[in-house]
Design goal:
single chain, mainly alpha
């Protein structure tokens, strides 16, 4: 099984970890925006779209998934508990449930902000901030875990673990033995 998507996630997460050298991961800084967050948010959003398409194809090869709304409908039908999947930042009090907001026909707010930055950067530059970047990377982690769980019935050798993110309150290094704690 290919690690290409997982390795890309780890590289993006590492880029976010380096930001902490300049911007403290604190709620008071959630609205801090920068060119680095633009770069990260656009890369993460693009990767989410890629993985969602792949996951939708695995779920139903006969159904074409064209955008995030059609991706959500297909994914939610198969994995309705994705709305409950919780991602945390190591050693911080942050809890992100990236796919919780919205519904089957509505995208999460952070996805809308990603699209605003992508299509209207001059007026929405400030939306490329710490908070939206954390939600986006949490959304990517979530969708990747569902994607890899769909591809394999045996534990997946991830080839690396997240350094700043964990999920469902359990450290990632404990969970990556194939025992992913998907909500019921």
């Amino acid at each position: 099984m290919s690690h290409i998507y997982w390795n890309h996630f780890l590289a993006l997460e590492d880029d976010l970890a380096h930001v902490q050298r300049y911007i403290e991961f604190d709620e008071e800084n959630f609205k801090t925006y920068s060119i680095e967050f633009v770069k990260l948010l656009l890369a993460i959003g693009s990767e989410i779209d890629v993985i969602c398409k792949l996951l939708c194809h695995e779920i139903n090869q006969n159904e074409e998934s064209k955008n995030i709304c059609s991706h959500r409908k297909t994914i939610i039908r198969k994995f309705p508990a994705i709305f409950k999947f919780t991602v945390r930042v190591e050693n911080k009090p942050f809890v992100f449930i990236p796919w919780e907001s919205g519904g089957i026909d509505k995208t999460p707010e952070w996805w809308d902000k990603y699209n605003d930055v992508k299509h209207h950067r001059s007026s929405c530059y400030h939306e490329a901030n710490l908070k939206n970047t954390f939600y986006a990377i949490s959304g990517l982690l979530t969708i990747l875990l569902y994607y890899y769980s769909k591809l394999s019935t045996s534990p997946f050798d991830y080839g690396g673990i997240p350094t700043i993110l964990d999920f469902d309150g359990k450290p990632a290094n404990v969970m990556f033995g194939g025992n992913i704690p998907f909500p019921k």
